[in-house]
Structure formats: C-alpha cells, structure tokens
Design a protein that fits this description.
single chain; mainly alpha; about 60% helix
C-alpha cells in the first residue's frame, strides 16, 4: 500500500484535519492511479477525498474514545 502515509493514531498531539486530508488524498491518488484527475473526474476525486477524510476522522475519534492511551 502507500508506504508514505504515516500512522495518524499515535503522536504527542491530536492529529489535525489537514493531516487527515493529506492522508486521504494520498490514499485516493493510490487507488485511482491519478496524481491529479482530469476535469471530468475532478468532482468524483474530490468527493472521494472528502469521504475518506470523514471516515478517517470517525475512526480516529472512535479509537481515541475506546483507547485514550492511543493518543499520548
């Protein structure tokens, strides 16, 4: 998978929305095969980044709620 995507769950400070969006963008780029989508695919690409970002935020919030030590 994407070796350059860093783990967002660990760290001294809570992860920022910008970090989540950056990781989502890397993931969508990898899955789609596009670094930058064509104009025809741009809306779908952006929607996918937003959906992955939201799902990531929900996951991180749930993990933190059940395992507070996950965020040092």
């Amino acid at each position: 998978m994407c070796r350059s995507i860093k783990t967002l769950r660990t760290g001294a400070t809570p992860v920022s929305d910008e970090e989540i969006t950056a990781a989502a963008l890397q993931y969508v780029r990898k899955v789609s095969g596009y670094r930058k989508p064509s104009v025809a695919n741009e809306a779908a690409f952006d929607d996918a980044v937003a959906a992955v970002s939201e799902a990531s935020r929900q996951l991180l919030d749930a993990v933190t709620a059940t395992h507070p030590q996950a965020r040092r």
